[in-house]
Specification:
The structure holds 2 protein chains of 2 kinds.
Chain A: E1 9-13, E2 18-23, E3 32-38, E4 45-50, E5 55-56, E6 61-64, E7 70-75, E8 84-91, E9 103-108
Parallel strand pairs in A: 1-9
Antiparallel strand pairs in A: 2-7, 3-4, 3-8, 5-6, 6-7, 8-9
Chain B: E1 4-7, E2 10-13, E3 19-25, E4 31-37, E5 43-50, E6 56-57, E7 68-72, E8 75-80, E9 89-96, E10 105-107, E11 111-115
Parallel strand pairs in B: 2-11
Antiparallel strand pairs in B: 1-3, 3-8, 4-5, 4-9, 5-6, 7-8, 9-10, 9-11
The chains are: A mainly beta, B mainly beta.
Chain lengths: 109, 116
């Protein structure tokens, strides 16, 4: 699985967009970029994933660079409930996810 | 996405005893995964459990300490044996979610174990 690098922590004002970066320079061509978040020691929650194209769902948008070496998760209007640890993980979909330390996002009122 | 029921949600156990954690999925899945999350840490993979074969353990985890059963395609158990305070962690099961293109994984809500 591709090793990823994320900033340890970020702050975001409530109502503003939260942009969480991730570097995955060793990702291979068949590996997806997955984003999960963990709120206060609950089980990790799936957010979004992508292979090459940008993706959007009801929770977030995922922007993947053309060379696939980095990506950005965008929460368009962060709320206090989005405070969590966000994990960016590279994987091929049939092997277990390997978690790094993630980014602790604090949404501030 | 798949729905996972994990039990118990939490427990406080005496050292030297064992606890069995159950993971029930609402659909048939080939692979199930067990993770441990120590206090303040990220998730660490313990083992992969396939139905009909022995679980595959990651480095640092052994079958005698963490025996796993996988009797069918919707159920698995993880036992934490001969517990010590160092085993106090959150234990989570996860499955590959075949309902989603590109798969991805769904996680149970976790079992918070405290060993005293």
């Amino acid at each position: 699985d591709a090793k990823t690098t994320q900033p340890p922590s970020m702050d975001c004002a409530e109502g503003r967009a939260a942009n969480l970066p991730c570097n995955h320079s060793t990702i291979s061509g068949n590996e997806y970029v997955y984003w999960y978040r963990q709120i206060h020691s609950q089980g990790p929650q799936y957010i979004i994933h992508g292979l090459k194209n940008n993706e959007t769902n009801e929770m977030a948008s995922l922007i993947i660079t053309e060379d696939r070496k980095s990506s950005t998760l965008i929460l368009p209007h962060a709320t206090l409930r989005d405070t969590a640890v966000y994990y960016c993980i590279g994987g091929s979909g049939n092997t277990p996810l390997v978690f790094g330390k993630g980014t602790r996002l604090s949404v501030i009122a | 996405s798949a729905v996972i029921s994990q039990k118990p949600s939490r427990d406080i156990c005496q050292r030297g005893t064992s606890l069995t954690i159950q993971c029930q999925v609402d659909s048939q899945v080939t692979m199930m995964f067990w993770y441990r999350q120590q206090p303040g840490q990220s998730l660490t993979l313990i083992a992969t459990a396939n139905q009909g074969s022995e679980a595959t353990y990651e480095s640092g985890f052994v079958i005698d300490k963490f025996p796993i059963s996988r009797p069918n395609l919707t159920f698995s158990t993880l036992t934490v044996s001969n517990m010590s305070p160092e085993d106090s962690s959150i234990y989570l099961c996860s499955v590959e979610d075949l309902r989603r293109q590109g798969a991805g994984y769904t996680f149970g809500s976790g079992t918070r174990l405290t060993v005293v």
